[in-house]
Amino acid sequence: MNLYNEYIKEIEERKGQGLHPKPIDSADLLNEIIAQIKDTNNTNREDCLKFFIYNTLPGTTPAAGAKAKFLKEIILGQEAVAEITPTFAFELLSHMKGGPSIEVLLDLALGNDSNIATQAAEVLKTQVFLYDADMARIKEAFEKGNAVAKNILESYANAEFFTKLPEVPEEIKVVTFIAGEGDISTDLLSPGNQAHSRSDRELHGKCMITPQAQEEIKALQAQHPDKSVMLIAEKGTMGVGSSRMSGVNNVALWTGKQASPYVPFVNFAPIVGGTNGISPIFLTTVDVTGGIGIDLKNWVKKTDANGELVRDENGEPILEQVYSVATGTVLTINTKTKKLYNGDKELIDISRSFTPQKMEFIKAGGSYAIVFGKKLQTFAAKTLGIDAPLVYAPSKEIHIEGQGLTAVEKIFNKNAVGTISKQVLHAGSDVRVTVNIVGSQDTTGLMTAQELESMAATVISPIVDAAYQSGCHTASVWDKKAQANIPKLMKFMNDFGLITARDPKGVYHAMTDVIHKVLNDITVDEWAIIIGGDSHTRMSKGVAFGADSGTVALALATGEASMPIPQSVKVTFKGSMPDYMDFRDVVHATQAQMLHQFGGENVFQGRIIEVHIGTLTADQAFTFTDWTAEMKAKASICISEDETLIESLEIAKGRIQIMIDKGMDNKNRVLQGLIDKANQRIAEIRSGEKPALRPDANAKYYAEVVVDLDQIAEPMIADPDVNNKDVSKRYTHDTIRPLSFYGGDKKVDLGFIGSCMVHKGDMKILAQMLKNIEKQQGKVEFKAPLVVAPPTYNIVDELKAEGDWEVLQKYSGFEFDDNAPKAVARTEYENMLYLERPGCNLCMGNQEKASKGDTVMATSTRLFQGRVVEDSAEKKGESLLSSTPVVVLSTILGRTPSIEEYKQAVEGINLTKFAPSHKLLVG
Predict the structure, then answer these.
(1) Which has more pLDDT, 823 or 229?
(2) Is the pLDDT of residue 242 over 80?
(3) Cα–Cα distances in Å, from 777 out to 770, 773, 892?
(4) Sheet of 855-858: strands edge to edge?
(5) Which segments of 665-783 are extended strands (E)?
(6) How far is CA 923 from the centre of its chain?
(7) In this predicted structure, what is the pLDDT of residue 243?
(8) What is the arithmetic mean of pLDDT over 427-443?
(9) Contact 289, 268 (CB under 8 A)
């Protein structure tokens, strides 16, 4: 009983942290527990029964297999446990969600004991997580005349697993809790620096917001035991930033309902709201958990008697309150009228929160059950040879005669499955689509693995062209937490069928490349749909959606995703860039010009940005598509010229071949298959058979933005504006300032060049600038630390081949060593150049950070509070985001440069240039 004794020891340690026993996923441990349950004289028996009944993880975990086997033995009378009757054993099986439990239930339902078979069938009728092998067993039995199998199929065909669920209550009482003012990042709900604990739900729950906030939530629950607590982003958007299932899990843990009495710390039905609604990626995660997300619109822009906006001294629109949602306010959500009330007073229409599809998610306890339920109903009806009754709300299919298609509408129509209409579909249509590429990253991957286990999936869907599991978010420090979690994750995903950054067998060298760069390389068709476990899944080929770990798991298991076709905003360019400007400045200027053109309204939010970039290869264009996460867009699509796309595909082929040469391909030769697809796509473009993706000339857009390159006269910096008097305007990514704003004297404490926002060209710019500075000043001397993390090993290898890495080595004081990776996070930095291991590094903020209170100038994506740098007692930490040359010069000077200093420093350097296409990029 060694494992059991170790478990008891762990329980005592967790007690000291205020935690309950950790849920069991080990079959070996559970078998020791079962052995003690069988021993009626065992002193541990009572505890073991509790662990077995209430603390064992369901799905396809090894422990679930052991639990299902023992329950089967009890039902068959092979084992007798007074506390677990056969009836109770069936109840426990009904809460195990698939995998081994379904196998056992099918064994019993299709067995020879008619009484047991009837009971098993009744439980099976409530289950939806069945896979091909399970359905094949039922079909085979039905075809052999098995009456129980026919009875199960008839129930499935009528979707009784859904129709017999309780209806959604007409009224839901909530009490409000203001979680923060302004945009609320998922970092507040699930901090990046606690990523290691995400798979331990109770432990991770302790990091949500603050301990004080948690106490306030508990106090509200005590005062209002009959109401749900609704978390609110006052004057902002809820859930911006990273795609974190753990964020919604934490909200559900503190404010939701327990999904099963026999599964600890898995809650559902969270309720969240935001003055400006819910971030699209976060709203998807809310749907996964059967929750409710509400666009409150409780503050609006003030207008004068003439209908003109009233502005403050800074030219910003003044907001006025429409109604209060102050903490402790009791509100009523009416799901029938689809209105929000305070007492009898109607506050706002919330129909968008209660579409027929969302009502189904709420009723079923989450979107997974609907996806699997529809598939199961279709199978049953087909097997019985009948038409499936209309149980689920029909998908909304919108066709507008005479209207062309945007790029995303074309992609969705090509990838759509199960549509009723034979006509092309336009934005707003609900569509189920096949997914071509899937990405899982390492800090959410453990949760994705848990989700796959909970939905009883064991192998990747054959529909998926390729899937990749990264190691980038834990690349900086190979500490004990990473060593405990990452090898286990890599083995699980490798066994599941993904290409993995680390080889569980240790054959190929660990690759910690930034996941988005790898996904961008392995996307070899601009018609592809990509789903990735990170908000920066924003490929510059195809259309990519950042998603929570659950949606990633669903894509891996089924090869499908469901969503409405989003509206699009068209972005084109005019004018020309000055020689001293970098494309990163164009990216920032796009956001600033859009906000100016639309009076402060972010027309990108929740929509597709269709950017007619034309002439930039996928590597360079990714700088734009990546930043669309910060623009709050749902996704983005690059429209490229034919030759540009061919060049991008050739680059992708070369990098995929390197992965093959390293030994990363699997038995299904997935990577070789991608090269074959790339060759086919190149041939189609060159022959004219199928040119690069174009929207139709008569496509309709929500808005059109024309970016004037002539207006971009100096580097543009995204500023967190940490001292803005209006708290809601801090940390938004919407404050874009020219370099001259800082007057050449703002102190910079640390620079960072890295993250998915940079490409090989940025590394070459860094090398060229350092050579220039030495030539001009006689030496290179840093007045602030400069941390450099190349995005990928491929880029490092290419820089070595081209001589640039040698330049960087010359000026560096530290260079990563894969043979001796850092085991401890760096807490202090010297004024020198650090060449860090490829990966996310400071951009993620989960392992290493700048010193508290620092002003950081970075090429990264995030400027949220506490992400790259935390506040000190004396000063707020701030992360300003800019182009590579601005970061380099800021660390050399120890301050922001003047525009004159900047121009001198970049003279003769090959910056990332961009010239708008002269071709009309429409079909």
Answers:
(1) 229
(2) no
(3) 10, 6, 11
(4) 736-738, 716-718, 878-881, 855-858, 750-754, 786-789, 833-835, 812-815
(5) 703-708, 716-718, 736-738, 750-754
(6) 32
(7) 64
(8) 94
(9) yes
